[in-house]
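User: Last request for today: this protein with zinc ion, please.
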Amino acid sequence: MLLIDCPYCGPRPEIEFRYGGEAHLARPADPSALTDEEWATYLYRRSNPKGRFAERWRHVHGCGQFFNAVRDTVSDKFACTYKTGESPPESAAAKNAKPENTEP
Ligand SMILES: [Zn+2]
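Assistant: Here's the final one, the structure of the complex with zinc ion:
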């Protein structure tokens, strides 16, 4: 069984978690200023890299908190987990991870 390290609770079985999509997506400050194409891109277009990828997860059957994780999409191994609003450690660089805090 795969264990996921919740940054709030510690390691727990994967069945306690839900995938929440790509991490570090910032909502546009003024959506009404965007074109329909730009808005559709923000809403629907996501990265799908082969390798390390920063993702949002939620510990739904535990603390209920959202957090981020860097996971290798090939091996399914988690490089690290970190709280929402934090940056991932440099040692766990992901293709879509941003060094600055871009989440609300
Ligand atoms: Zn938790």
